C-alpha cells in the first residue's frame, strides 16, 4: 500500500525566535504610514479633499495652538497614567480589564471630598484628603477581584469587566444624588466659584502661559520613572515577572503567589483611582459616566505595544492621543459626524496591532520554504 502523501500548505506561519530592533521599528513605521494612506483615501472618497490638507488639519487639531498642544499633553498624561497602572497586573498575567471602573470610583471619591470639604479644609489638607480617598477607592476596587482570583481562582477578566458596569451605575447614582439642577442628571462643575480642589492650570505660567497642565505632566512623568524602577529594580518587580512567567516556578522559588497577586492588583487599582483624581481635580472638575472615556481599554493597547516598558508608553500614548485629537479636528473641519474620527482611529489601531503579527511571526511560502520577511 502506497504511503499517504501529505500536501504541504502554500503558507506556513512560524513564530520568530527574535527580531532585530530596527526591523521591528521599520515594520511598525510601515504600518503607521500604510494606515495614514488608507485613512487619506477614505477621507478623499467621502469629502474629495486633498489628503495633504487632511493631514495638515490633523496636525493643527492636535498641536495647532498652545491650548491644543496642552490639551494633547493632558490627554497623553491621562492615558499614560492608566497604562502605567495596568502594567504591573498585565506583566503578572492578571488581565485587569477593570481600569475604567477603578478610575470612576477614584473620581467619585475625589468629587465627594471636593463637595463635602471644599469649603472647610485648607488647600493642602483638601488635596491630601482627595488623593487619599481616590487611592483608597481604586485600591479597594482592584483588590476585590484580586482576592477572589488569589483564593478561588476566579476569572479575573470577567470579574474586572463586570465591576466596570457596577462603577458606571454608581457614578450614575451619584450624578443624580449630587445633581446641580433637579432632573438634569449631572452635578455640573464642582466648586465653580471657589475652585476649591482644582489643580492649577497656571503653574509655571511664566514659562508655559496661564493655561497649561504642567502639574499633571510632572506628576505622571514622575510615576513613569517610579514604575520603571519598581518593575526593573525592586524585589516586588522581580516577583511580578516570575509569577507572570510561571506560578509554579514562583512557588518553587518561595514567592507567596497569593500575596503577590493581591499586592500587585491593589497597586494597579490605586493608580487608576489616582488617575480619577487627576481627571476630576485637574481636568473636568466634575464626574460622569463618561469621565473615563474608554481610555481604560485603550491603555491596554499602549501597555501591550510598549512591551510593558514605561518609557516607550510615553511615545505610544502621545501618538494615539495626537491621532485621536487630529482625527476629531478632521471630522469637524470637513463636516463629518463624530463617528468619522472613531473610524479613522480604528483604522490606525488596526494597522498598528496588525504589525505586531509580522514582528512575532514569519510567513513561509511554497514547497521549499521560501520565507517572507
List strands and helices in order, with pairings:
Blueprint: E1 11-15, H1 21-47, H2 51-63, H3 66-91, H4 99-117, H5 123-152, H6 156-177, H7 205-208, H8 214-233, H9 235-245, H10 247-252, H11 257-284, H12 295-305, H13 310-333, H14 338-360, E2 361-365, E3 370-372
Antiparallel strand pairs: 1-2, 2-3
Distance between the termini: 41 Å
Q: Provide the gyration radius in Å.
A: 23 Å
- Gross geometry: globular
Characterize the main sheet: 3 strands, antiparallel
Structure notes:
The protein is mostly helical and 373 residues long. The chain has a domain at 78-310. It has helices at 21-47, 51-63, 66-91, 99-117, 123-152, 156-177, 205-208, 214-233, 235-245, 247-252, 257-284, 295-305, 310-333, 338-360; strands at residues 11-15, 361-365, 370-372. It has a three-stranded antiparallel β-sheet. α9 (235-245) crosses α11 (257-284). The chain is globular. 39% of the residues are buried. The mean pLDDT is 91.
Can I get a quick summary?
The chain is mostly helical. The protein has helices spanning 21-47, 51-63, 66-91, 99-117, 123-152, 156-177, 205-208, 214-233, 235-245, 247-252, 257-284, 295-305, 310-333, 338-360; strands spanning 11-15, 361-365, 370-372.
Amino acid at each position: 500500500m502506497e504511503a499517504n502523501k501529505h500536501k504541504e500548505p502554500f503558507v506556513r506561519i512560524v513564530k520568530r525566535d527574535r527580531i532585530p530592533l530596527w526591523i521591528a521599528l521599520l515594520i511598525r513605521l510601515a504600518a503607521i504610514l500604510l494606515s495614514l494612506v488608507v485613512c487619506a483615501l477614505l477621507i478623499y472618497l467621502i469629502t474629495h479633499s486633498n489628503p495633504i490638507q487632511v493631514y495638515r488639519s490633523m496636525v493643527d487639531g492636535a498641536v495647532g495652538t498652545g491650548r491644543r498642544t496642552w490639551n494633547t499633553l493632558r490627554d497623553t498624561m491621562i492615558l499614560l497614567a492608566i497604562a502605567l497602572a495596568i502594567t504591573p497586573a498585565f506583566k503578572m498575567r492578571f488581565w485587569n480589564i477593570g481600569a475604567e471602573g477603578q478610575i470612576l470610583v477614584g473620581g467619585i471619591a475625589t468629587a465627594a471630598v471636593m463637595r463635602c470639604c471644599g469649603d472647610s479644609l485648607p488647600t493642602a489638607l483638601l488635596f491630601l484628603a482627595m488623593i487619599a480617598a481616590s487611592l483608597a477607592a481604586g485600591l479597594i476596587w482592584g483588590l476585590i477581584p484580586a482576592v477572589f482570583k488569589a483564593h478561588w481562582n476566579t476569572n479575573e477578566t470577567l470579574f474586572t469587566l463586570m465591576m466596570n458596569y457596577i462603577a458606571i451605575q454608581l457614578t450614575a447614582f451619584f450624578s443624580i444624588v449630587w445633581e446641580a439642577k433637579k432632573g438634569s442628571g449631572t452635578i455640573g462643575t464642582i466648586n465653580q466659584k471657589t475652585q476649591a480642589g482644582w489643580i492649577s492650570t497656571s503653574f509655571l505660567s511664566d514659562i508655559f502661559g496661564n493655561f497649561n497642565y504642567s502639574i499633571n505632566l510632572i506628576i505622571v512623568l514622575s510615576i513613569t520613572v517610579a514604575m520603571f524602577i519598581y518593575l526593573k529594580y525592586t524585589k516586588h518587580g522581580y516577583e511580578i515577572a516570575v509569577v507572570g512567567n510561571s506560578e509554579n516556578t514562583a512557588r518553587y522559588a518561595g514567592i507567596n503567589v497569593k500575596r503577590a497577586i493581591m499586592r500587585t492588583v491593589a497597586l494597579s487599582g490605586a493608580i487608576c483611582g489616582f488617575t480619577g483624581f487627576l481627571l476630576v481635580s485637574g481636568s473636568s472638575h466634575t464626574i460622569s459616566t463618561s469621565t473615563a472615556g474608554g481610555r481604560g481599554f485603550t491603555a491596554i493597547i499602549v501597555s501591550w505595544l510598549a512591551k510593558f516598558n514605561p518609557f516607550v508608553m510615553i511615545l505610544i500614548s502621545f501618538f494615539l492621543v495626537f491621532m485621536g485629537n487630529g482625527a476629531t479636528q478632521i471630522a469637524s473641519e470637513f463636516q463629518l459626524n463624530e463617528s468619522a474620527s472613531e473610524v479613522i482611529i480604528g483604522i490606525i489601531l488596526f494597522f498598528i496591532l496588525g504589525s505586531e503579527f509580522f514582528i512575532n511571526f514569519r510567513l513561509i511560502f511554497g514547497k521549499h520554504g521560501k520565507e517572507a520577511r
